[in-house]
Specification:
This protein is α+β, with helices and mostly antiparallel strands and 250 residues long. It has 2 domains: 1-67; 70-244, SPRY domain (Jelly Rolls), CATH 2.60.120. The chain contains 1 helix and 13 strands, in the order H-E-E-E-E-E-E-E-E-E-E-E-E-E. The chain has one helix at residues 4-67; strands at residues 84-86, 92-95, 115-116, 125-131, 138-144, 161-167, 170-173, 179-181, 189-195, 200-205, 210-215, 224-229, 241-244. It has a 7-stranded antiparallel β-sheet with strand order 1-2-13-4-9-10-11, with helices on one face. A 6-stranded antiparallel β-sheet has the order 3-12-5-6-7-8, with no helix packed on it. It starts with a helix and ends in a 6-residue tail after the last strand. Residues 5-9 and 46-58 have low confidence and may be disordered. This is B30.2/SPRY domain-containing protein. Keywords: Signal. It holds the Pfam family SPRY. Residues 53-248 form the B30.2/SPRY domain.
């Protein structure tokens, strides 16, 4: 009786066993690799969470640092366009139904609807916040003392204005040339921070603690005044601009 067929069968079985063992080893290695990868993913996720927490704290510290330089800003009625209505405490402004009658005043803006803050600044750092909630149009920023206040006004640093605005649903920084801004959310409170000596004017969305725009490397040589315009009147833009009290104001 020949043993060759049995030998062949045994060899086949041996190959199957080897393949099965190899397959099992491969599966074990794959499972080990998967476990190691999962551990690495957990480590990376944890690192990212720590980094995000650190960034959040850093941004919080940064914004609190800005607010240390908060100043008490009030509106100057002598500069207000005749159509503007200012609150008694000079903290709110809106557009009225018609122009009021005022005595002639070289400080007053006309025909552009603008008002400046009462106090100008010519050194150091300062910060203020403005509520723009509910508005479809507004302008905020800074103006130097010697600006033109009558006739047509072109907002740009060259003309003494460092401003941003909301118009027709678009946010724009009035640089030269103007810069259209892409914002994640519609700001409800805008913070303005100025470092006079560094030539820096920065704008921030204070609700989500994000940067909006900065004018950098500016040459400030005159007094700078907070600048406000509530935009054109109308039912959809009737909400006032409100200068907010900031804790720590000095």
């Amino acid at each position: 009786i020949s043993l060759e067929p049995y030998t062949f069968v045994c060899l086949v079985c041996l190959v199957c066993l080897v393949q099965a063992e190899t397959h099992a080893e491969t599966q074990a290695e794959m499972q080990q690799t998967i476990r190691e990868t999962q551990e690495k993913v957990k480590e990376v996720k944890h690192s990212l969470e720590l980094a995000a927490e650190h960034d959040s704290k850093s941004h919080g510290d940064e914004f609190r640092d800005f607010q240390r330089y908060a100043v008490d800003v009030t509106l100057d009625p002598d500069t207000a366009h005749p159509a503007l209505r200012l609150s008694k405490d000079r903290k709110e402004l809106r557009v009225g139904d018609k122009c009021l009658t005022f005595t002639a005043n070289p400080k007053r803006f006309y025909p552009v609807i603008i008002v400046l803050g009462k106090t100008g600044f010519c050194s150091g750092r300062f910060y203020y916040e403005v509520q723009v909630k509910g508005k479809t149009s507004w302008e905020l920023g800074l103006a130097r003392e010697s600006i033109t206040r009558t006739g047509g006004i072109i907002l740009s640093p060259e003309n003494g204005y460092w401003t941003i605005w909301l118009r027709n649903g678009k946010y724009v920084a009035l640089a030269n040339p103007p810069v259209t801004l892409s914002l994640r959310k519609k700001p409800q409170k805008v913070g303005v921070f100025v470092d006079y000596e560094k030539g820096l004017a920065s704008f921030f969305d204070m609700d989500n603690r994000s940067h909006i725009y900065s004018f950098t490397g500016q040459n400030f040589i005159e007094k700078l005044y907070p600048y406000f315009s509530p935009g054109r009147g109308g039912r959809d833009n009737s909400a006032p601009l409100v200068i907010r009290h900031v804790t720590g104001t000095h």
